[in-house]
């Protein structure tokens, strides 16, 4: 989680509750039927998340772009992308905004680590400044462009606009906390939680011929500073590749 400010304020019409179809050809095409790996590859009609693949220690390996071929390989091998180097939630919001503008045959499900971080990300995503206190919203599910935002608990009942298919999971977890909330964890009200399991189960429900929607983890942490195997396992992944 990032460390957002908290504040209680009246509910009002929320930005991002509706999808601005005029800017997104993929939204006008309607539902995209995905029944095979060839259909999966058609989901990715441009390159996403270009960057530098590195070792755990940060040594550069080669350039990488998440295109159709790479997305099929990641989902087939069940390998996640561990993206580090984002110093602020505001900077990440800007990057996600750019991703939401790209044409796509599916939707990117953006899973935010907590309700408070979800509110703060939404604040920055729609142009809020860092000196303003983020508004709290009644719902943690919101949509813009090709992106749908939620928290892990929303995934079990998440309905995508236009009956869309998840092209992938973009997970915002600044301090790599979600994996800790798995077996035996309870919230403040004493209710059992399995937040990492919600992510793993959601991917499994959208499996196609052994392929799972790829998962991209955005975090402030470096790979060497976290329990990589435990995090990957809790999310249902075999392992991570590292991207800066």
The Cα radius of gyration reads 17 Å
CATH topology: Rossmann fold
Oligomer description: single chain
**Number of separate strands:** 11
Distance between the termini: 19 Å
Q: Name the CATH architecture.
A: 3-Layer(aba) Sandwich
Overall body shape: globular
Q: Which range does the strand content fall in?
A: 15-25%
Q: What is the overall pLDDT average? A: 81
Helix amount, in percent?
25-40%
Order of helices and strands: HHEEHEHEHEEEEEHEHE
Taking the sheet with the most strands, its summary is: 9 strands, mixed
Number of helices: 7
Please report the first level of CATH classification, the CATH class: Alpha Beta
User: Strands of the largest sheet, in order across it?
Assistant: 2-1-11-3-10-7-4-6-5
Number of domains: 1
Q: Helix/strand-derived class?
A: alpha/beta
Poorly predicted runs of 5 or more residues? 1-31
Which helices and strands occur, and which strands form pairs?
Elements: H1 25-28, H2 37-42, E1 48-54, E2 60-66, H3 68-77, E3 79-83, H4 89-100, E4 107-112, H5 115-125, E5 142-144, E6 147-150, E7 166-172, E8 185-186, E9 192-193, H6 195-205, E10 215-218, H7 228-234, E11 239-243
Parallel strand pairs: 3-10, 3-11, 4-6, 4-7, 7-10
Antiparallel strand pairs: 1-2, 1-11, 5-6, 8-9
Helix pairs in contact: 4-5
Features:
Rossmann fold, 244 residues, 21% strand, single chain, disordered N terminus
Report on this model:
There is one protein chain. The protein has 244 residues and is α/β, with parallel strands linked by helices. It has one domain: Rossmann fold (3-Layer(aba) Sandwich), CATH 3.40.50. Helices cover 25% and strands 21% of the residues. The protein has seven helices and eleven strands. The protein has helices at residues 25-28, 37-42, 68-77, 89-100, 115-125, 195-205, 228-234, and strands at 48-54, 60-66, 79-83, 107-112, 142-144, 147-150, 166-172, 185-186, 192-193, 215-218, 239-243. The strands form two sheets. A nine-stranded mixed β-sheet has the order 2-1-11-3-10-7-4-6-5. Strands 8-9 form a two-stranded antiparallel sheet. Helix 4 (89-100) crosses helix 5 (115-125). The longest helix has 12 residues, at 89-100. The protein is globular. The chain starts with 24 loop residues before the first helix and ends with a strand.
């Amino acid at each position: 989680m990032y460390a957002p400010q908290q504040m209680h304020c009246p509910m009002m019409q929320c930005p991002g509750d509706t999808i601005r179809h005029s800017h997104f050809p993929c939204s006008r095409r309607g539902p995209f039927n995905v029944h095979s790996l060839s259909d999966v590859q058609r989901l990715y009609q441009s390159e996403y998340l270009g960057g530098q693949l590195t070792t755990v220690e940060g040594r550069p390996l080669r350039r990488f772009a998440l295109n159709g071929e790479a997305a099929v390989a990641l989902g087939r091998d069940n390998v996640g992308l561990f993206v580090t180097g984002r110093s602020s939630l505001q900077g990440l919001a800007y990057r996600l905004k750019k991703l939401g503008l790209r044409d796509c045959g599916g939707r990117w499900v953006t899973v935010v680590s907590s309700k408070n971080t979800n509110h703060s990300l939404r604040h920055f995503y729609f142009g809020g400044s860092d000196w303003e206190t983020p508004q709290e919203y009644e719902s943690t599910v919101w949509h813009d462009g090709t992106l749908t935002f939620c928290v892990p608990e929303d995934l079990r009942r998440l309905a995508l606009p236009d009956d869309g298919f998840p092209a992938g999971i973009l997970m915002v977890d600044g301090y790599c906390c979600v994996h800790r909330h798995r077996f035996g964890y309870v919230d403040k009200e004493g209710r059992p939680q399995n937040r990492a399991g919600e992510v793993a189960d959601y991917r499994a429900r959208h499996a196609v011929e052994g392929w799972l929607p790829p998962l991209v983890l955005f975090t402030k942490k470096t790979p060497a500073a976290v329990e990589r195997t435990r995090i990957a396992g809790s999310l249902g992944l075999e392992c991570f590749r590292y991207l800066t």
